[in-house]
Amino acid sequence: MKDSERKTLQFIEQFVAEHGFSPKLQEIAKGIGITSRGTVSRYIDGLIEQGHLKKDGKKSRGLNLLQTALQGKLIAPLPLLGFIAAGKPIEAIEQEEVLDLSSLLQGSDHYVLRVRGYSMQDEGILDGDYVICQSQKTAENGDIVVALIDEHEATLKHLYWQPPDQIKLVPANEAMQPQVYHIDRITIQGVVKGLFRAG
Fold this sequence. Notes:
Blueprint: H1 3-19, H2 25-32, H3 37-49, E1 53-55, E2 63-65, E3 78-85, E4 97-99, E5 110-116, E6 130-134, E7 144-149, E8 153-162, E9 166-170, E10 179-182, E11 186-196
Parallel strand pairs: 3-5
Antiparallel strand pairs: 1-2, 3-4, 5-6, 6-11, 7-8, 7-11, 8-9, 9-10
Helix pairs in contact: 1-3, 2-3
């Protein structure tokens, strides 16, 4: 990936994490410090060819970060699968990186996600942190889970079951409100088991 494409992708990731929707070409151009929308369009075409983005030509904000199933295999290093929103839900991005934490965790059901946002800050989970997750499809009340909303938006929240058919996702930030979903809209992808902060 070229530096210009990497900078473009990073801006799009950050914009989606902050706003919950994709930027327009002029917003990307301004964000990466250029004036030509044509140049931005070429960068985006390159990212699409590399599998980082997809485009819905019918929408003005039609860029989508390609999702991941948020499931990894720990063979030696843990896979860094992408980003997880601690704020507004975002689509996770598949990465080609690994983090060698095999000495800390054993088993084939762990993976790592990098946090975007501050909705879990009262749990000490901050923007840029890495959460170590155990892949599982169930969780207990109060667990911090990787939740997939409507099969494509991933978020990190406390989970609370609300019988008979609802789930409440609760942030750890007093400035943000819990969200309640019908159980059919939520897929549990994992439970947070650890945290580390690079640097």
